Amino acid sequence: MASGNWGSVKSLSQEKIVLAITVVMFAVAAFALPGFFTSENIVSIVRSVSVLGILALGMAIVIIGRGIDLSAVAIMAMSVAWYLQLLNDGTTDGTALALVLAGVLATGLLNGFLVAYAEVPAIFVTLASGSFVFGYVRSQLITQDAVPVPDGHWLQLFGGVRYLDVPVEVFIFAALAFLIFLLLRYTKWGRYVYYAGDNPIAARNVGMPVRPMLVLRYVISALISFIAGLLTAASLHSINTRIVNSTLLYDIVLVAVIGGIGLSGGKGSVRNVLFGAALIGIMLNAMTIIDIALIYQNLIKSTILLAAIIIDGLINPRDEQTSQQGDI
Amino acid sequence: MKYVKMLMAAAAVLSISLFSTASQAQEDPGPAAYSQALKGKHVMLVPMAMGFDLAQGWSHYIQKEVESFGGTFETRDPNWSVEAGAQAITEAISSDARPDVLIVHAPDLNSYARLLKKAQAAGTYVILIDNPANFAADAFVGSDWDRLGQLEAEAAIKGCGPNSSKKIGLVQGDQVNASSLYQYAGIMKVLEKNKEFQIVAKPDSNWDATTSRNVTTTMLQQHPDVCAIIDFWDGDASGAAAAIRDAKLQDKVFLVTTGGGEKTADCDTLENGTYGAVVMTELHNQSRDINAIIKFLLQSGQPAGTSKTYIYTLEKATDKAGLTANSCWDLKALQAEAAAK
């Protein structure tokens, strides 16, 4: 496991490189950019990446188990859009929530079932199910791209919740990160995720329930996406399904991969997501303060992703015994 | 003589009344010509996507008018994808049911130019709406974005007032869309004339509300004394509004944006103070202009691609005090009307 490599021979892990870059970037920005090193700005950096970070936590669980979930953004936007549409049409909150949760669970189960039992590559399953979720909800269940939160609904009030001047998203991000850390580190299920991601065949041979566990990972990822969607709607008082066409999905993969979670599975932890999110958050914030145009921001972001993938490939070469090309 | 006069007067009265009855009985040739030129004509709308207020409003008003003159109306939904839009236009031109009029909402200055030339060569009139493009359409109907930017800047200056910090922040759309670039140019023209006002930051939102919220949060931390923010569209201005709300600066920052004049998007938000002023494109009037040019082109007899008309929508910045019952149109009401049919 790469996360146990601190101080070992292979000490130059990607995680450490990213952490070093993040620290340097933070120091330079704090020194050079007025208004960067203030508690408000730090809080806003964390807040601006908290939804991204939450989504990346779900993605991390799936990737560590050697998979990928490209339906995350579609589930996030469309489940909440449907929920708000139901509320706007006069459905009671309980019924609407139950219906949408059922939909989210069904999508996660379908993803997991197709990957685990039908053995279709995860990248195709989730790409297709993401498109399906978007297309079905957009055409059958909602009437327009953006759906507002009804006036006076708890989501509106929830979006304004602060504790010690820190927005609620930050606490939820922290809580989820801690919960998933405990789950991965201290439960049998969590250890099994690493084993299954590292060498699925060996894991199955020693008797781990590899397939049901795989299904559960996609269900967790779907539920986390729904939470991220609710937080987005709470802060903006509406959800715009155009986000499915944005670069958000790539940003999620970016946060996970750049933090050092290997795409070949079995490596990484919650800490990697936090480092990745910190790097992206500081970078975007600094670029906004310097007033760099968005197209250049995207270029810089994608260059860093490319570099991270190359470094990942050099530091963690594929293991002939356990890896197969085109696994995900 | 008296009788002669009376007789002449009677004859005059009779002849006038006869003439007038004759002219009353004569038919006005207009309706027949109108009907003949328009009946069975095929009109197609290709917006950037069908799922937002502008597209749904245009489509409602145009459909109503086209169907009333006996034509057929269709829409294509590219769902914000330039490729899907290009494919829809290509298929429309090559199909047997080639549209007589193609109404296109261009995503940028260049993408569709060659396709639209092809459409004109095949005999289809092309009307560009809302977004200008580098292409000589038969007509352009929409905003003069430069003028719209000027209206926004004037509203922001007025919203700030003479005793303010005179600092204005922009949240642009992106760097490729004509509506964003021209809006920016218009804003700058007004600021050239009002040198005491200055732009403190001008990040892009990429038309996304979350991005708008994040950049506005940063902007307000860097410049807490900003007195007005211009966000280039009501769709992402909800993000800027959230950032202002979070910073508890609703009373200090005057938020100006642009929109299609839909009730929940613009009038309700002006009413509750989310936006300080909105330059509305008054979509119902704009749709009327589109309908008028469709009817003109189909009757004109001129070949497609021979005229070049610009019809700019009359716009003004509306604030809460200027709201009237007719300021907005209501998407929900239009949807209910369509559902009742």
From TrEMBL, chain A:
UniProt-annotated location(s): Cell membrane
Membrane-spanning ranges: 17-37, 44-64, 70-87, 94-114, 120-137, 163-184, 215-236, 248-266, 272-296
Its membrane topology: Multi-pass membrane protein
Keyword DNA-binding carried by entry: no
UniProt protein name: Ribose transport system permease protein
InterPro entries hit by this protein: ABC_transp_permease (IPR001851)
Keyword annotations of the record: Cell inner membrane, Cell membrane, Membrane, Transmembrane, Transmembrane helix, Transport
Record organism: Pararhizobium capsulatum DSM 1112
Pfam family, one: BPD_transp_2
Domain of life: Bacteria
From TrEMBL, chain B:
Every Periplasmic binding protein domain range: 56-299
Signal as UniProt keyword: yes
Keywords from the named record: Signal
UniProt KW Zinc keyword: no
UniProt xrefs under Pfam families: Peripla_BP_4 (PF13407)
Superkingdom field: Bacteria
Database matches in CDD domains: PBP1_ABC_sugar_binding-like (cd01536)
Signal peptide positions on this chain: 1-25
Cellular localization per UniProt: Cell envelope
Protein family (similarity comment): Belongs to the bacterial solute-binding protein 2 family.
PANTHER family noted in UniProt: D-ALLOSE-BINDING PERIPLASMIC PROTEIN-RELATED
Protein name, entry field: Ribose transport system substrate-binding protein
